[in-house]
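BACKBONE STRUCTURE TOKENS:
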Amino acid sequence: MNPSILSAELRRLFRSPLTWFTFATIQLVMSTYYLLLVLRYLEQGATLASHGVTQEVLVPYFFTANLCVMLSAPLLTMSSIAEERRNGMLRFLFSMPLSGISLVTGKWLAVCCVGLGMVALLICVPATLFWGASVDPGVFASNALGLILFSALQISLGLCASALARTPTGAAFTALPIAACLWLADWAARIDGDGSLAGGISTLTRLRSFLHGLLHTADIAYFVLFTLSLLGIAILTVNLERDW
């Protein structure tokens, strides 16, 4: 990882209006949704009391937070490599003594810093439940971990798409359908009783254990290995372009 790449990418992200628009939109949507969940629980407390605030407020909130991260990650990553390829800056970077690993990991860490900042704010919102409700801290912690792992995976997917695409728009429209297919594969597995493969590769299937407060080594390994694999593809793509 090259510190200059990391700092340059951070400056680019924080100077981009799209980054702040994404932050504001996600926070507005999730804060409103959280408020609606709390009001619903208060109004129907007698009916929902058997399930508890953890299942009726916390779990639906984190489920939707993961969905918002999936939709917003391509916006943060689409310009990381594709924009520099389009304006010729990538060729300039290739002329420097800089490896593909340093370039890709520097950009990935920069986007992760920004993306995980957004995730931290998302996690802080339901943390307010601890002030006045009986919340299962284990379920909260597992959901927070799942959201972080899922975010890292989505950022890797967006960065890989940016490395493969010629334009930022193309990168976004490449990453989003792939992320959606990985998410919806869970539904295919539920419809088809033999769809074990679809369920195994589905991000939603892997998130379900986190949502219910369970930590499975296989699910953690899935997110870590998938993230590293996507970064490996991005590094390979950059190295091949440099050699050409």
